[in-house]
Amino acid sequence: AAASYTDSSDDETSPRDKQQKNSKGSSDFCVKNIKQAEFGRREIEIAEQEMPALMALRKRAQGEKPLAGAKIVGDFPCINPPLPPCPGFPVFAWKGESEDDFWWCIDRCVNVEGWQPNMILDDGGDLTHWIYKKYPNMFKKIKGIVEESVTGVHRLYQLSKAGKLCVPAMNVNDSVTKQKFDNLYCCRESILDGLKRTTDMMFGGKQVVVCGYGEVGKGCCAALKAMGSIVYVTEIDPICALQACMDGFRLVKLNEVIRQVDIVITCTGNKNVVTREHLDRMKNSCIVCNMGHSNTEIDVASLRTPELTWERVRSQVDHVIWPDGKRIVLLAEGRLLNLSCSTVPTFVLSITATTQALALIELYNAPEGRYKQDVYLLPKKMDEYVASLHLPTFDAHLTELTDEQAKYLGLNKNGPFKPNYYRC
To answer: Residue ranges of the S-adenosyl-L-homocysteine hydrolase NAD binding domain (predicted)?
Structure first.
């Protein structure tokens, strides 16, 4: 049953129902408003100033053309502000997509007459899942998959374990550079940004429970602690749990603190971390949001029942009201807070995009037989290369090993400096 829902926002026509053409007369795209193309181009030019590695890689690629002949289909979360199609690249995405819109957009990218992708660039595994489900024959011509998220990588390992992964896949999520910046440093900033934009709250003295102490959880906890919040952590992994304790956070079960906390933040990559039972027991005006995966962490579906009233307060902010008048503040309907309610720093996108590009180049150009039908980590040399391309931004100067030091450590003077299993 649908919940009672009041919404003060304007009812806009779905981009799917609009007939739009770009300056070249093409209609092979679907965005909210193609008239914003000029604005989008200026936004891209501003962003390029904070993307030193990607710009360096682009300059190098102009001469070498390492992806000549590649036909890449990609799936990325929509990022504020929604940018229009880049010249020659059909884009199907807009902010505020419904779930049906989301899968429609993915299908429009894949199911194109006369076009067959030979590389997949995925974030969350949804695109890979869709092709497996709807167009499995496409994998005959696909050379590889590049995946950048915790959840997407988990799905790939499941496919591999079941013997169902039919092409090589590159796990760039566990590249140290990507993981630290996209998961730790990015979330350390965007958690505060998203909460401020949506709720205008102060953080000092607020009681917060962060579910999960992986890289995302570590970033969120560090930011909130620095702002004076009282932070609790829930965790299933004893190693991450011990880290939380050593960092000064109280390790609890969610049930132990659910009645007293002011904010609940999920960062697990799991599903149904916050259940209807938890939601029923929350105090009045508790803020609930997700920094983890998709919209699965908070059981939002359980709130869409006749006895509860949904009130749209502002964009991405809903009050869910119980019969006794108690209300919770649900952000982005349980979707990712930093993608829905704030922005991802451009410098972080430079790191993730450069890592993805190098992974695509590696898989696409690899000689036959180098990579089997399995999941691989990005070679450590490339991981270090991504970091080195960003150092000039900080006027940072690397120390170089002497011949004697390199021999002592058993390393090449130019790296890699760590083994491929190194994760810190």
So the answer is: 183-344
